[in-house]
Write a structure and sequence with these properties.
The protein folds into 2 domains: 191 residues, Thrombin, subunit H; 87 residues, Pdz3 Domain. With 364 residues, it is α+β, with helices and mostly antiparallel strands. It has a 6-stranded antiparallel beta barrel with strand order 1-2-3-6-5-4. It has 7 helices and 18 strands. A hairpin with a 5-residue loop joins strand 2 and strand 3.
């Protein structure tokens, strides 16, 4: 879209303004992206997951019009989803909500071979889980760099929702660092991390835990949710960034529990009004509303009222962006942060802490 000021003094001035501000394409133009090779190289890396669990439910019996409680009965329930093979020895990443409370997990490969799976660990705060099947020389999808993914970039969403073979849909990245409030904080201990990649690739129930891949056939996201009033695809889907998923998967494999890092702050997202009050010309960063005493930020010298600009070299302009970047680090990591205070941009090094306020590993 071209914007021009009204009241230009001459046609030549207006033309120059339009040329200077016009959106232009690269010199080589736009090329059609053929995803057939990408699909062929990745569909075998996506599996169907079926879980079963039994629940106690009331047993009612009708006698001459009267409903009488006859006690409890055990009833088996099944749930379905997708998963992504991330190593040739059978480690599979999926969503926590696909396997939570499962008593048994069954995996169907794209060649329809069925194998039992072991639950390695879950992280409800990111809605991620790691399972494993006993197999070797599997085709897997290598992790890509979700930071380098760009809005407008073409992507494929691959899932196995119907226990047939993997299905492929195409779209583009619509937005990044989306916080849509769908991950529940059931344990009341850890803040959910939501910084989704939003796409318009069509996905439906059963695609949860599937792969979002780029044109290099690299995994850049784990498909997690759709924006829908009826539970079916209506335009937007959301994926957990691969850089976060890789860190959580590594933690679950090594410790059986995600090693969450904390900065020890509460923040307010910036608005034009707040920026104006601070004498800033642009809206950027997140404002530190509270700095926890003896927390990581406090020990590094950060104070309430500071404007946090970047973490580990990555700009953070929203709560979601800050949480994603911190979530990709472990307690004990040293990260450089930049912040704005009293008219000056400064930097310091923060030693991140765990939920207990230490840098120790928390085991399951």
């Amino acid at each position: 879209m071209t914007l021009a000021f009204l009241g230009c003094q001459s046609g030549q001035t207006q033309q120059n303004a339009e040329v200077n501000n016009a959106v232009s394409l690269p010199a080589e133009g736009v090329h059609y992206v053929d995803f057939s090779d990408v699909a062929a190289n990745t569909i075998d890396g996506v599996v169907h997951i079926r879980t079963t669990q039994t629940r106690l439910t009331p047993l009612y019996q009708s006698f001459f019009g009267f409903i009488i409680n006859q006690g409890m009965q055990r009833k088996e329930y099944s749930a379905y989803g997708s998963g992504v093979i991330i190593s040739d020895d059978g480690y599979i990443v999926t969503n926590n909500h696909v396997v939570q409370d499962a008593e048994s997990i069954q995996v169907t490969l794209n060649d329809k071979k069925v194998l039992p799976a072991q639950l390695i660990g879950t992280d409800p705060a990111t809605d991620l889980a790691l399972i494993k099947i006993d197999a070797a020389d599997l085709k897997y999808i290598p992790f890509g760099d979700s930071d380098s993914a760009r809005v407008g970039q073409p992507v494929l969403a691959i899932g196995n929702p119907f226990n047939l073979t993997s299905t492929v849909t195409a779209g583009i990245i619509s937005a990044k660092a989306r916080n849509v409030g769908i991950i529940e904080n059931a344990r009341g201990m850890e803040s959910p991390i939501e910084s989704f990649i939003q796409t318009d690739a069509a996905v439906n129930p059963g695609n949860s835990g599937g792969a979002l891949v780029d044109a290099k056939a690299h995994l850049i996201g784990i498909v997690t949710a759709i924006a829908s009033a009826d539970g079916y695809y209506t335009g937007y889907s959301f994926a957990i960034p691969s850089n976060l998923a890789r860190k959580v998967a590594d933690d679950l494999k090594r410790y059986g529990h995600a090693q969450r890092a904390y900065l020890g702050v509460n923040v307010i997202e910036m608005t034009s009004s707040i920026a104006s009050q601070m004498g800033l010309q642009e809206v950027r960063g997140v404002l530190l509303a509270r700095v926890a005493p003896e927390g990581a930020a406090d020990k590094a010298g950060l104070k309430q009222g500071d404007l946090l600009l970047s973490v580990a070299g990555v700009q953070v302009n929203s709560f979601a962006e800050m949480m994603e970047e911190i979530g990709r680090h472990a307690p004990g990591d040293l990260v450089n942060v930049t912040y704005y205070r009293n008219g000056k941009t400064q930097s310091t090094t923060v030693t991140l802490q765990n939920v207990q306020g230490t840098t120790s590993v928390i085991r399951k």
